[in-house]
Amino acid sequence: MDPEVSLLLQCPWGGLPEEQVQVELSPSYDRRPLPGGDKAIATVWENRLRAQPWLFDASKFRLHSAILAPAGSTGPQLLLHLGLTSYRDFLGTNWASSAAWLRQQGAADWGDRQAYLADPLGVGAVLATTDDFLVFLRRSKQVAEAPGMVDVPGGHPEPQALCPGHSPRHEDLPGELVVRELFSSVLQEICDEVNLPLLTLSKPLLLGIACNETSAGRASAEFFVQCSLTSEQVRKHYLSGGLEAHESTGIIFVETQSIQRLQEAELWSELCPSAKGAILLYNRVHGSICESPALSP
């Protein structure tokens, strides 16, 4: 396994649709206050704002744990325990210089390495075209995370989307609406980043959850989405620009038959950890035995 990524959860073969996933949202799944208080988080945030004044804070869902139902059981197959966190807390914990110490302290104090970390849940899409290519994006050098690296389309589900006009609270966020936001957000990220019409995208299938070990184990739910367009049609849509076109500088297509051996290709070293996790899960849950890597720049 690549040391930059670990797999927290692998869904059953084929992936899970929205109706097979449940969410329990509770304050008990929020991160623990830092030893000695959260002043260190405020200091990190203030320093980052001085260097990057365009940054803004926003609420995020925090992944506490995930429970997969036993094979053969009926009803929903996956239960996600979620809390609330923020981008500010993410920078002040997962990205802080003290992140490794916080994980050690969390294990010692609570039996949970992630107890003191914000761990905002991300989403990523393994996006397939009708002519059997997967879609990757070259990230802009201006973005905060993984500048210049290659990624799959993705982002975050947004608590604010479920309660516009006021700050999200646990009691305002029913589990079924959170699940809907989780699955719809990955489609919205594809629309915004690749500039594809929503009607060209299939319903997402959850492949599993991967953890970015370069940001202290921050988790991302990885999905498979089928597009009804060819790679050339996708390229044309992308080049015409979308809402988040500024976040990437190029589009890359990789043949699906090559994905099983992508770790042997030069491109693997250019993938950010979340994209590596998405591909590892795709190969285990949705992929097949493949040929040698072939790229279409």
Folded structure, characterized:
The protein is of the alpha+beta class and 297 residues long. It contains six helices and twelve strands. It has helices at 39-51, 87-92, 99-110, 175-194, 231-239, 273-285, and strands at residues 5-10, 21-25, 59-68, 78-86, 122-128, 133-139, 150-151, 154-155, 205-212, 218-226, 248-255, 295-296. The strands form three sheets. A five-stranded mixed sheet has the order 1-9-10-5-8, sandwiched between helices. It is globular and about 55 Å long. Residues 289-295 have low confidence and may be disordered.
What attributes does this structure have?
single chain; 297 residues; alpha+beta; 5-stranded mixed sheet; 4-stranded antiparallel sheet
Secondary structure layout plus pairing:
Blueprint: E1 5-10, E2 21-25, H1 39-51, E3 59-68, E4 78-86, H2 87-92, H3 99-110, E5 122-128, E6 133-139, E7 150-151, E8 154-155, H4 175-194, E9 205-212, E10 218-226, H5 231-239, E11 248-255, H6 273-285, E12 295-296
